[in-house]
Design a protein that fits this description.
Distance between the termini: 31 Å
Oligomer: single chain
Shape: elongated
Length: about 190
């Protein structure tokens, strides 16, 4: 990754994007030192133009941005960093500097919550208790939810249909976790069929 820091007084713009939802969260600037620190610590550090110093996002609020990937644009003068935000990103209290939280990509957040509850063995969690019952029970539950969705699709109650569709997706995500797979694995199959 060779970035051209020679433009604009050694600063390059940095676009921060949610790794799960792909929502744009904020724009900041980095000099070479901030970039190297970000790569080393895997927590986003900017060069603050107003403070005239390095500034790690979250150093005061605790709302750190954990780096998942770093890409450079074709001109090598803009950085795209995909992150997992600890909490809200904008200093105004909004999730993003460009508005509220987007519903797009929420399935990835839900998948992460399901995985976390199972990995952390959260005893009072329905998700973990179903997982503990084994693959047969998880698969059976997906089958039950699929049948309920088919039944609701024959009626004209949109609210119940959407509720059953949500139940099916939720249990499908648990089944994927049980099988050691992810939503991304399924997306990749669908992309090859495109």
């Amino acid at each position: 990754m060779k970035i051209n820091f020679s433009k604009d007084n050694g600063l390059v713009p940095v676009i921060i994007q949610d790794n799960r939802t792909l929502q744009i969260l904020m724009l900041g600037y980095m000099n070479e030192e901030a970039f190297e620190k970000t790569k080393r610590e895997e927590i986003v550090t900017f060069f603050s133009r107003s403070k005239n110093r390095l500034w790690t996002k979250g150093e005061e609020s605790g709302n750190f941005l954990t780096v998942k990937s770093i890409d450079i644009d074709c001109d090598q003068d803009t950085i795209l960093i995909k992150v997992i935000p600890k909490n809200v990103v904008c200093h105004t209290g909004s999730f993003s500097c460009f508005g509220g939280k987007s519903d797009k990509g929420f399935l990835y957040e839900l998948e992460e919550k399901i995985s976390q509850r199972i990995d952390d063995k959260v005893e009072e969690s329905y998700t973990y208790s179903l997982y503990q019952r084994g693959i047969n029970k998880v698969a059976q539950k997906v089958g039950e939810e699929a049948v309920e969705l088919v039944i609701e699709s024959k009626d004209n109650n949109e609210k119940l249909f959407k509720s059953e569709a949500a139940d099916l997706l939720y249990h499908f995500l648990i089944l994927l976790k049980t099988k050691g797979l992810s939503l991304q694995d399924i997306e990749e199959i669908l992309q090859t069929r495109n």
